[in-house]
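Record type: ASSEMBLY
Status: queued
Input:
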Amino acid sequence: MNLMKDRFLLIIFACVVLAAPLIFAPTGAAYPDLLQRFAIYGIFAIGFNILFGLTGYLSFGHAAFLGVGSYSAVWMFKLLSMNIVPALLLSIVVAGVFSLLIGYVSLRRSGIYFSILTLALAQMSYNLAYSVLTPLTNGETGLQLRLDDARVLDAAGDAGSLPSTNFFGLEMKEVFWNPTVFGYDLQFNWGYYVCAILLIASFWISIRIFRSPFGLMLRAVKTNQTRLNYTGISSRPYTLAAFVISGMFAGLAGGLLASMDPLAGAERMQWTVGGEVVLMVVLGGMGTLIGPILGAVFIKYFENIFSKINDGVLHGWFAIMPEWLDNAMVVIISPFVGKGWHLTLGALFMLVVIFLPGGLVDGAKRIGRVITGANRRAAKVGIE
Amino acid sequence: MSKLIMNRRGLLKTGAAVGAGMAMPTILTAAGHAGYTNAPTGSTVTLGFNVPQTGAYADEGADELRAYELAVKHLNGQGDGGMMNTFSSKELKGNGILGKEVAFVTGDTQTKSDAARASAQSMIQKDGAVMITGGSSSGVAIAVQGLCQEAGVIFMAGLTHSNDTTGKDKKANGFRHFFNGYMSAAALAPVLAEMYGTDRTAYHLTADYTWGWTQQESIQAATEAKGWQTAANVLTPLTTTDFSSYVAPVLNSGADVLVLNHYGGNMINSLTSAVQFGLRDKMVNGKNFEIVVPLYSRLMARGAGENVKGIFGSTNWHWSLQDEGSKAFVKSFGEEYGFPPSQAAHTVYCQTLLYADACERAGTHNPCGVAEALEGFTFSGLGNGEVEYRAEDHQCFKDVLVVKGKENPTSEFDLLEVVQVTPRAQVEYAVDHPMFAGGALGACNAGG
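Status: finished
Output:
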């Protein structure tokens, strides 16, 4: 029964993800770059949720794995081939090894000490990438492709322009279908579908882990680790495994970011990125399957759409109002949009944490309960 | 059981509803297939203004945005036309670009390459921008320039001073009006040698990114050519706000000049630190200790206040210039916003006009046509005298201003005085100069 339910959930999820260019069209978010980001940060958040949602270990250092994944992928594009497969494989492997190292060190402690250790190690990685490892990372400017890179597996292309990242010939940036539906210009892009399929696969892996005995053990760690230890079970192999798995997800996300846009910068490793994924998971609903993805979409939507609303756009909205009211509305609203998008996001985050401790998923459940409850009452009235 | 499924289903629906709830009127511009990316099909043409609105360079970004909006007004025939009247090319009629009204979208680069590229990407894919311009950090400008090259739109660089932007990272679709580190150094070094003598020892504090590196390399080479020595070069992260630990070791190094290869908020903080340490009152090697800031701007001078008095640096342009173009620009900017424009505002205003003019001359918005029209273009009347867009590296060549912090400022904007207008010939360099070598323009990309 459980399996059926999970399959049902997965199928619904897959349908929504695959139809995203259509679903998001009315929101103004249905352009390839942002959809790719939704999917990529969704993968990042799914991985993070396996650690944070299941074991309760709060890591602030996952940005380091994202960054390492990106750097690995770009190096693969520079040296080996513009095909994304070797790049993604290397990202996952390198991030996995790196998270094994960091996890081995920081999982010696739990609670706030663990968080601080991961934060410190990630900040160290950021500073290394920023200055000491400049030959490897190109510092603040970021690692970019160049015309004279080796790319030993690729046939020599057009000398004047950079080759584009591809999956056996399917170019990531190519929009392969460009129909107009309900007046919306839809862009179906190969890059997004690569991300989407990996997102669905990640979601499936996440479901399997949540339902497995391993997942149960991770939940036990979260519920009462001391008790688990007293029963004679060493929890560290489990937490370390969860840490490495989530690190590999982060590496995959980093590799995908670089595959969609071949550039890797040190700021991807900054602690703010690590903090952002925590926000995504908490906002969406930690420990739930779908929550982290909702959170990722929510935050990326704010970052990319809300930050673009300038005074001109606002005037456009209120154009039908009398001029003084138009100006007054713009004055009131403009601090919350455009460059003030952080303010709105912060306020929303506070509201969610205070009133919906379970995140957006919690909110959806409550609404669902109200609706079904109301239905039941209505049904009862009907019977009587 | 079925109730649970309902919940999950309801949940997914809610997820979609949340998205729909945030729906806002957004016009999705058709991608078009007119042979190049975002060919404008309607009655408007969209430009993307991608500037830092948060972070170390936010002041510059805000001033750039003001200038962009002013330029759009002038292009659409509103206002007094500003420098369109003094510009040597007379193609612009105040009826938009090629008869299409100019519309624009703005974005926040956050002074981060990733955010800047995401923002530029959304302008290209969602808003249908046919040209991207902006950037107040060379790292960001180089990253966005690379993106524009791949996407097949023109990038008109804003405030970016690194040699690399038109050096090893130059791109066929990217153009820079602003001057660069090499030019600053070439203009500044003779003045410094004249003022402070030729037997000086310099200590460099350098912002740790592409601009800082190339600026430092340039000024070190130029001053050493004049006989100076270099004691040390210390790299400081761009995000540093407290420079006291970097300034403290300077006095013990035996150096008698401190060169601050910093810009924006960085420079304000490091200069304030250095002055607070009393460096400028010290005598070292029997000479007065001096501070030099290779790249100056009025916004920085205002931020650093009293501390800039008597300090030498270079700028691309200054509002006190008395040629017709500068006067016209200062007048219309001042009437619009109530204060004079910064050099960042000037360069992006010029870039917008230059782009529009190139479209008119080429008769198309096609990036390859526009690029061809810009390459080798010589013009005047935009405040810098005779200027040439060199075809080989897409860098503008023009006179450079050496400036000094004013001793007796008459207003909060009158902070810099022009010491010397260094003629173009003195700051010019060969395309294959070692500081600029290693890159290739490649071929222009029109996307499509």
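Annotation: Residues 2-270 of chain A form one domain.
Annotation: The beta strands of chain A are 143-144, 166-167, 170-171, 175-177, 180-181, 184-185, 188-189, 263-264.
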